[in-house]
Amino acid sequence: MHQTFYIDIDEEITSIVDRLRKAKSKEVVIVVPKRAILIQSIVNLKLLKKEADGLGKELIIVTQDKFGKMLIEKAGIAVEQKLDDVAGEEVIEAEKVDLDDAVKINISGMGEQRDVETRKRVDKIGSDGYYQNEDVEDILSAEKYITEAEQLGVNQENVEKITNKELVIDVGDDLKKQKSSFSKNMSKRGFAPMDMIRNVEISEDDLADEEEKQNGARNEIRKTKEELFHRENIQSGLAKNGKPGEKKVENFFALSRRDSADEYKSINVGNNLKKYFITFCLIAVLAIAGAAAYLFLPKATITVFEKKKIQSVDLQIDGNTSAVGVDLEKEIVPTNVISISDELTKKYDVTGSKNASNQKAHGTITIYNEFSSSPQPLVATTRFASADGKIFRLSSGVSIPGSQNVGGQITPGAIEAEVIADEAGTAYNIDPTSFTIPGFQSSGNEKYTKIYAKSFKAMTGGGQSGNQAVKTITDTDINSAKTKVAQELKPSIIQRLKDSAGADFVLLDDAVNIDDSSYTLSNSTGDAVDNFSVTVKMKASAIVFKQADMKNIVATAIAKKGADGMQVSENSINMDFGKSDANFKDGSIIIRVHGSGNIIPNIDLTKVKQGLLGRQEDELKAYLSGYTDIDRVEVSYWPSFLSGKIPNYDSRVDIVLDKN
To answer: Which of 29, 253, 407, 555 is 20 to 30 A away from residue 452, measured at CA?
Structure first.
């Protein structure tokens, strides 16, 4: 069973020795990170090895630091690449006591007593008799060897090769002396002497080549290593009672700590310089990028607004259905003729009256057709005879639908119609009954019996004797109703014509023709009714033309009237149409129009643009004062935060003329 310790990269040898003394297991494994202070000095490792031997503990160091592994092996300590290569059960480490922490606690005044025994054991490391003369000489010779190897000016990989070449013999002797009880796989440890000799062979030519390549770095490495190890300082501290080879531990550890501090100080200075250099480069890049953005990134769009000048013309334009397209020179536009029909039914009150004794009864009957599947027309005034022989006549003509065969059964066609008594008087106010058509008696019994009528309400309105007045339809009522219904239908049918033409076409009121209208009345003059209905049917046609064709002709005429090279904004064209003459026989029309539009001055935008490049916005007004046709300019920038100055480069500026 073994106990494992993990040390920090900057942990001092005194702390590690103290932890080794406190280890409860005979077998101790120390896990060391790369570049740790412990494995950077052969002196530290010799101290640790001597302490382990004195305590009777078996020691293995686990690290992946190549240079450190060479020093560990030189010190005679077993070394492994990974913790997994160490076999055996691990003992959980007891609570650690950090010497530095103990010192800090004592200084902070918390009143805790430092472990006196621990202090004595640690302090004993630097006693006069801690090392024998031969031990100091071994340490110094090893330290001297490492320093001389580093002064060759080669990199760490070559140092490893050279050192191993001379250390393999000592390594083999040290490992033989160490009687470890660890259960390990020797093939995994891989530091058998013969294997190491094969792995580290190097030719003198290769070393000379590498030395020549590293010539520029030798002086710097030599200087750093000499300061790190301080050979002179170490040797100067080896005098006690005039005996060479002995030194005080206090001086040694003071020098070691100073070397470590100097090393890390130099590293910190290098890091700071690197940070300053990176910061300087970043600021320089940002400054260059800002200057480039200011010179090349901005883009501006200049919109020129010209001073408005309105020009007008009066034209008489010909429209013809035979024209293929608009003719700007002859001022001819193509036309289309569209037609549509519509009808409207309205009910109106009667205004006439007459004596009731002359009033005829009237009512509604339903006429049936079982005779034929074809419709049967009946003219107005067709006679219907009631069951008691009273005659009633149709108020208006109707067509009775034909019969239908539904599921093998004959279903007669039917239609409702208004009838009026043939004579006045109350005798015709009869109850619901059936009717026949006397006129069909000569057409055969089947037609006479299968075309018939029925009333489901009593006839009313038959005049009483005396001077009682009742409402009746007059000719004035009928004429007024026809006029009203026609006037109401006309706007509706014109709107339907416009909808049929589409939004791109113009329909003038003078270009609409209403054909003769037909009217249908529910009652005749003299009928005694409270109201009656009128149905009007209309057919209308119109000549239309495209609005864009008319604008093109007006714009061309305005441009001709002005100076050479003058242009007209089509979006500003306004047209007022006068009376038109339409011929619906051939689809031709004469269109009279008053047109006006804004004149676009002939401005050399390229010249204006060249004059504006690189100018500040507050300079634009003074520069543009020389252009009498320009009202103002508006400038938009991209990106917007770089506004205030128009870019110097032509490719970064666009100029357009506002035609609205």
So the answer is: 407
